[in-house]
């Protein structure tokens, strides 16, 4: 009997309106994650007092299962490494 397969990682993109770096990271996630059948949720840090206090002006932030794995800038190579990292 093979071990159970863990559920896919949960990705969230912490963002805010008018942030061009957030838009850049979202485009990369759209291309890479969605192309693999994975999804992410965009979360506005200004709509959540706890996130705003925790991350302040540091956006975008990519969370994997609630843990920050990338801040401000992300390229395809680094995203690929994040996707292949064991949880």
Overview of the structural elements:
With 87 residues, the chain is of the alpha+beta class. The protein has a single domain, classed as 3-Layer(aba) Sandwich (Glutaredoxin). The chain is built from three helices and four strands; from the N terminus they run E-H-E-H-E-E-H. The protein has helices at residues 20-35, 49-55, 76-84; strands spanning 11-15, 40-44, 61-64, 67-71. A four-stranded mixed β-sheet has the order 2-1-3-4, with helices on one face. Strand 1 (11-15), helix 1 (20-35) and strand 2 form a beta-alpha-beta unit. It is globular.
Please describe the structure with a list of short key phrases separated by commas or semicolons:
87 residues; alpha+beta; Glutaredoxin; four-stranded mixed sheet; 3 helices
Widest beta sheet: strand line-up: 2-1-3-4
Mean pLDDT: 92
- SSE order, one letter for each helix or strand: EHEHEEH
Distance, first to last CA: 22 Å
Count of DSSP-assigned helices: 3
Q: Write down the Rg.
A: 14 Å
Structural class: alpha+beta
Query: Low-confidence spans: pLDDT under 50, at least 5 residues?
Result: none
Q: What is the fold named in CATH at topology level?
A: Glutaredoxin
CATH C-level class is Alpha Beta
In CATH terms, what is the architecture?
A: 3-Layer(aba) Sandwich
Total beta-strand segments: 4
- Envelope shape: globular
CATH superfamily: Glutaredoxin
